[in-house]
Amino acid sequence: MEVSDAVTALAALAQDNRLDVFRLLVQAGPEGLPAGEVAAALDLAPNTLTFHFDKLRTAGLVTARREGRSIIYAARFETMNSLIAYLTENCCGGDAGACAPACTPKSVRTKRARVQA
Amino acid sequence: MEVSDAVTALAALAQDNRLDVFRLLVQAGPEGLPAGEVAAALDLAPNTLTFHFDKLRTAGLVTARREGRSIIYAARFETMNSLIAYLTENCCGGDAGACAPACTPKSVRTKRARVQA
DNA sequence: GCATTATTTCTATAATCGTCGAATTATGGA
DNA sequence: TCCATAATTCGACGATTATAGAAATAATGC
Lengths: 117, 117
Fold this sequence. Notes:
The structure is a homodimer.
Chain A lengths: L2 H11 L2 H13 L4 E2 H8 L3 H13 L3 E6 L2 E6 L1 H15 L26
Chain A binds a DNA duplex through helix 3 and helix 4.
């Protein structure tokens, strides 16, 4: 992931409502949610929501597809992966392992020797 | 980590120069770097740099201490950890493991099917 | 075609952002 | 003390942001 891509993704997530939107979409899973449902869940005006969706889509964090009258937005986990990977690398840059522990989520175990640099 | 803290930290990193500053400080390690050295390395005006340091400090991502005439800024890995942990959790919220592969730094292989990046 | 629903586009606005020039504070050395 | 160095504070500026109201577009059913 490029620096500029990281900045774009970070900026997309650096706003209350957008972070809420993204978390909701992550929770919803790969099938996503219609824009209207997101609007209802988070109590956001439809045009405001479009504005935020645009930011997320530009950052590659969500996809949009039409389904009947609705437009379904879904989280793009790949991009989120790349972002976390980027942050992890840059966080651990000089002092490897400093951030590694935090990167072991819930049930998934890697329990491997961390990067040594 | 609270949602608002995450937003603050994300916003702090969501800017080219600030992300560069933070990466430089991470590279420099726990001892940190004098502001002037950062300014020289990234070719930033001292007052502009102060502005950015303030954002990073407010987000808890860096610390500042005076040493003679210089003020030494250092990355706070702890906060970065919390941020990555927060993102990892919220990224994998509905679909645990979806982001796990990305959290394995550099040379560590999981040899599990991984989400395409 | 017309009405309804779902979402976007357009226009406007207050607030915040990133940068700059100039002045100011703080420290150390002659 | 006076001077040079290091960083901050202040005031200003154009640019971007987040939101809102009104109108426009797209899809569906009658």
